[in-house]
Amino acid sequence: MEVRSGTVVSLEYVLRVDGREIDSSPEGEPVAILHGHAHVLPPGLQDALVGHFPGPFRVVVPPERAAGAHDPEKVTTVRRDDFPSDAALEVDEEFYARGKDGAVVTARITAVEGDRVTVDTNPGLAGMTLEYEGVIHHVREAAPEELDHGHAHGEGGVHH
Ligand code: ZN
Fold this sequence. Notes:
Elements: E1 7-17, E2 20-24, E3 31-34, H1 45-48, E4 55-61, E5 75-79, E6 94-98, E7 104-113, E8 116-120, E9 130-141, H2 144-149
Antiparallel strand pairs: 1-2, 1-3, 1-9, 4-9, 5-8, 6-7, 7-8
């Protein structure tokens, strides 16, 4: 059967951006997801799988269907003194910050130049086209209990 909301999908995947691997399912261990309720999959993949049958797949997800466009307003430059003196100020270092609306966001250092530190609070995958490749092992109808719990049971799923 084909992937749609309310099915349990067992799959392996690799996520690449510009040909560079940045995420994957654990080697040799397919993950089982309840389609429509998956929290374990990276952005955009769940929707892109709809209509696929078991077998190899390759999907390309544009930014607007994944983590969204990169917002230049979420990039700011702050002073080195604004950080605790023992903070590791290195490119790609991540930390939590409070955004303008008071919500806690993940911030990433994208540049350090002298006294100035450039910080980006966009999601890590914002603005990126995601290339997924993998194999769908099987697709089955979710059991009522799984729909009730909002996750897949059994191999690759939740055990309890
Ligand atoms: Zn359960």
